[in-house]
Design brief:
alpha/beta, 22 helices, globular
Length: 625
């Protein structure tokens, strides 16, 4: 069916043409008329004998309505009436572009199109040092930093769809990559925290704020300031003696907010440091009583962003929303799509935390929310694997509660994908659990742990890992064949499952054979199994490389390349060591002689499959340089 759009088309024509192609719609003057009206109120899409109409308030609503229209036409519906109320003024995502993976401009545009058809209206690109600052050439050096022109291109594209891009930077902590160069010697408090109170620091921050905000239309800016755990305890302590850390924090925030105001910007900050400084145990939010004089002295004009993706009950979020409002009423909520847990998205935690959090936000009248998608420890999870989480946030933005069947239908309409395939990625980290809200991440440590050292082998001694991952490999191969433009996600997943079907249990198998002095089994492992595993690991490396370059700038891939290279080299070493033992060149293999312990302690080792998301700790018990 061809369509002909008439009416209030100002500012939506370019986006309509782009999304129309994506959704498979055909346009023409001879097509069926679609009357478009921009007005205050609910989103409405109506089709019947009298024609088709769309009524919308914001551009983001129109593009969501377009998705609804394409879905109904695609299903052969001739009469329908859809009305939706916007539950949040702001609803969007934050993409981490600082943990090695810097999204290509084309990927950002793809995400913007997906956001538009879902009805999301705000995007943050989290950039610690991955944007250019002209006076500081080492800032973001060799990290894939964005140029002014690249960021402006992203902002111009987002504007076509009524999506606002808000710069998201750091002006206190989380700056280890930026501060490691010699230019920053006089600006460090600790390795990753700026030296509060130092004049050069505020000159530096002013250049950061100018450079980060210049490409964008939005006058809002996220200036970070989270997790500065050791503020005032490094060079600051040596230089100034011990000072009240609330005072240091407030003084620094006041100076940074003054810089923001100088450029007519509206800053927001992560809120956790005020709670952590008030907690004797260093908790993020609980067990913290912020003194009234501290509350009174918090600089005005900086919105607090309450981030939380760990609670799974509404009551916890409601309690902490109320506590945040004691610091200032105009707060934002940041939830999370669990992309930072290792190799795969944890959808058990994503759904449990998001459903509870966004229901609490709606009940408590929080009208600005967004979903973070972090890339901790190397950005091993591809951002497009998180699409169902984006859809979940979008659907919460237009309904009081979200049911899974509606969610899957909307996901298919917006992305063209089968949501069950994406949710199946969750099974990489489910080893015998019905639901993984403990956020265990065995696929990461089973992939990167050393074959001969086996730091995690005690945890998987009695689990059928080969069967589990072989079955996943079969599923992911079928998903890759049917997933079109996002097939690279499932190709990489299939290669991961294939490699883990051998590697996950090889350490236990080696140790068992060695302890039993079963030289025939050791020979089979050395001559047949390990060479096969090496081939699978090389296939996995190449699949992950294709996935990376389909999504990100090249910088940062070298980190994962080195991790894969380490595994491949250690397979060669394992073959050599086993053969030396079998030929009598050595009398034993000390790495296999050593007793295996639980990674997280004997007292709790049997209780759970652990969560460890630090490559260096996983790969070796020795110091990793």
């Amino acid at each position: 069916m061809k369509l002909h759009f008439t009416g209030d088309l100002r500012n939506i024509c370019a986006g309509l043409e782009i999304l129309g192609k994506r959704l498979g719609l055909q346009f023409g003057a001879e097509g069926k008329e679609v009357t478009v009206t921009k007005r205050q109120g609910d989103l409405e899409v109506k089709a019947g004998k009298s024609g088709i109409s769309i009524q919308y308030q914001e551009s983001a609503h129109f593009y969501r309505a377009l998705g609804h229209l394409a879905e109904r036409i695609g299903n052969g519906c001739e009469e329908f009436h859809i009305t939706e109320t916007q539950r949040f003024k702001t609803n969007g995502i934050m993409a981490d572009c600082s943990r090695n993976a810097v999204l290509s401009v084309e990927s950002v545009k793809d995400i913007i199109e997906l956001m538009a058809v879902m009805g999301l209206n705000m995007l943050m690109l989290y950039t610690e040092d991955t944007y250019e600052i002209e006076p500081y050439p080492y800032f973001g050096y060799m990290r894939g930093r964005y140029t002014f022109e690249e960021l402006k291109e992203c902002d111009d594209y987002a504007d076509l769809f009524g999506i606002s891009i808000i710069p998201c930077i750091q002006t206190l902590a989380h700056l280890s990559a930026a501060l490691k160069w010699d230019y920053a010697d006089g600006m460090r408090d600790t390795d990753d925290i700026l030296l509060a109170g130092e004049p050069d620091v505020y000159d530096f921050i002013e250049e950061m704020i100018k450079a980060a905000s210049a490409p964008f239309r939005s006058k809002r800016i996220h200036i970070g300031m989270d997790e500065a755990h050791f503020i005032g305890l490094g060079k600051y302590l040596s230089k100034n003696g011990y000072k009240n850390r609330f005072g240091i924090m407030n003084g620094h925030l006041e100076k940074v907010c003054a810089i923001a105001r100088k450029y007519a910007l509206e800053p927001m900050i992560w809120s956790d440091m005020y709670f952590r400084l008030a907690s004797k145990a260093g908790d993020y939010y609980d067990n913290a009583e912020i003194p009234q004089n501290v509350r009174d002295s918090i600089p005005k004009g900086a919105q607090m962003v309450y981030w939380d993706y760990y609670h799974t009950a509404e009551e916890g979020y409601k309690r902490l929303i109320k506590r945040h409002r004691e610091l200032g009423p105009a707060m934002l909520f940041a939830g999370g799509i669990w992309t930072w847990n290792g190799i795969s998205v944890n959808y058990d935690m994503t759904f449990a935390a998001t459903n509870a959090a966004l229901k609490a936000c709606k009940d408590e009248g929080v009208d600005e929310v967004f979903a973070t998608m972090w890339g901790d420890n190397g950005a091993e999870t591809n951002i497009f694997a998180a699409l169902p989480g984006m859809q979940l946030f979008a659907e919460h933005g237009y309904s009081q509660a979200v049911d899974n069947e509606t969610l899957k239908t909307r996901f298919k309409a917006c992305t063209g994908q089968n949501m069950n395939d994406f949710l199946k990625l969750n099974d990489f980290d489910r080893l015998g659990q019905e639901i993984n809200t403990a956020a265990s991440n065995p696929s990461k440590w089973l992939l990167w742990q050393d074959i001969l050292i086996g730091l995690f082998d005690r945890h998987v001694e009695n689990i059928d890992l080969q069967g589990h991952y072989t079955s996943l490999a079969v599923y992911m191969k079928d998903a890759a064949a049917s997933s079109g433009r996002y097939g690279f996600i499932f190709e990489a997943a299939q290669k991961l499952a294939q490699a883990l079907s051998i590697k996950a249990g090889i350490g236990v198998r080696l140790k068992t054979a060695y302890d039993a002095n079963d030289k025939a089994e050791l020979a089979r492992i050395s001559n047949d199994i390990l060479p096969m595993l090496r081939g699978f690991m090389e296939e996995l490396r190449l699949a992950y490389m294709r996935q990376w370059f389909a999504t990100n700038k090249p910088f940062g891939w070298e980190v994962l390349d080195m991790r894969f290279g380490g595994i491949l080299t250690r397979i060669d070493t394992a073959i050599c060591r086993i053969n030396q033992f079998l030929t009598g060149e050595i009398n034993g293999i000390p790495e296999l002689t050593e007793k295996r312990l639980y990674f997280n302690g004997e007292d709790k080792g049997k209780r759970a499959v652990p969560r460890v998301n630090n490559y260096s700790r996983i790969a070796s018990a020795s110091v990793m340089m």
